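Risk register update: the risk of archive-format incompatibility is retired. Evidence:
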Amino acid sequence: MIADHSTKSTVSIDATKAKKIWIHCNSCFEHYVNEKTVIFLLACQHVICEKCVTASLGRIPGDAPTYVCPICQKMVRGRQVNNALPSNLKGMFHPAPWHDGLPHDLIDSFQRANFKNLEKFILKKEKEEQKLDKDLLLARGVCQKQYLEQHRLRRMLRELKFRVRKISQQVKIKKRKLAQSRRAHRSISVSTKKAEKQITKHSLPELKSVPITSFVHHNNYSFDL
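Archived output:
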C-alpha cells in the first residue's frame, strides 16, 4: 500500500508539472517547472525570468520595483510567479479557467500566445537539430572518405618504402659487382703490363745477337752497263 501511494504521488507531481510546462521565460525559454530561476509576470503580459530582465528600485522606500521588458522594451511593474500572486494575476496561469468561471477569453489569449511562442521556439530548435544531424552526417561522410584516403596513402607509402629498400639493395649489389669488376680489370691491366714488360725485356737481346748479312765491297770497276 505504501508503494502504491508513492507511485500515485509521483504520477500526480508529473501531471501537475505537465500542466505548467508552457510557463516559460519569453526571452531565454527557461521553464518555470525547472525551478532554476525566478519568473516574473510583467504588466505588459510578458513572462520573463530574473536573468533576462532589468529591475530598477522604486523612487521611494517601499515602492515596488520597475522592470524593463526585453521583449517590448517597456518599463513596467512585475510580480513574481508563485502561489503568492494576487488572484487576478494567478488566474492567468489557471489550467482550466472556464471551470471556475474566470474570464477565460483573456486567459486563453494569454496562454495561447505563450504556447505559440514556445511552439515556435521548439520548431526552431528542431530545425537546428535537423541541420546539425545533416551536418553531422555530412561530416561523418567526409571523415570516412578522409579515413579511406589516409588508409590508401599509408598503404602506398608502405609499398614505396618497400620498393625503395628493394632498389637500395639492388643498387648496393650493383655497386659491389661494379667495384669487383673494376678491381678485376685493374688486376688484369697490371698483369698485362707486367707480361708486356717481360716479353720486351727477353726479346731485345735476341734481336742484338742475330747477324746481319751485308754486301762485300770490291774495287770499283768503271764501265758502262
